[in-house]
Amino acid sequence: MPGPSTIRVGALGATLWSMVLLAGGGCGGPPAVSAASEEATVRGTVTYKGKAVTAGEVRFNPANIRRKDAVTRTAAIGNDGHYSLTTLVGQNTITLGLPDLARKDPEFTYTVITHDVARGDSIIDIELPLRQAP
Known about the structure:
With 134 residues, the chain is mainly beta. The chain has one domain (5-20, 40-128): Immunoglobulins (Immunoglobulin-like, Sandwich). Helix content is 14%, strand content 40%. It has helices at residues 11-23, 99-104; strands at residues 5-8, 39-48, 51-52, 57-61, 73-76, 82-88, 90-97, 111-117, 122-128. The strands form 2 sheets. Strands 1, 2, 3, 6 and 9 form a 5-stranded mixed β-sheet that branches. Strands 5-4-7-8 form a 4-stranded antiparallel β-sheet. A hairpin with a 2-residue loop joins strand 2 (39-48) and strand 3. The N and C termini lie far apart (32 Å).
């Protein structure tokens, strides 16, 4: 089982992260596009300023040019901030629906993250907002 990964995102961070991902990293051509139909279980915790997000949903969208018909997988965020779902291995676009948080902080109305889901069980923790380096 791969180790846990943590995604730290803020609205500005999500925008910048999306721009970096869309740029494709510059040299070396376009990133590999997965056609995998293998599924993997993903679970994790969504936190905001170190505290569990207690309402909302996490959506993993594995669709791409080679798997156009792939369906978005959705999981509710529990009272303890945890979520769990099954999605396709390879690159997934993760979106968060956080209505309570968006009312407090409009920057979180729409957050987009891209993550490469590995085979087997994965832990993907999502920390909001982006932590600034000292």
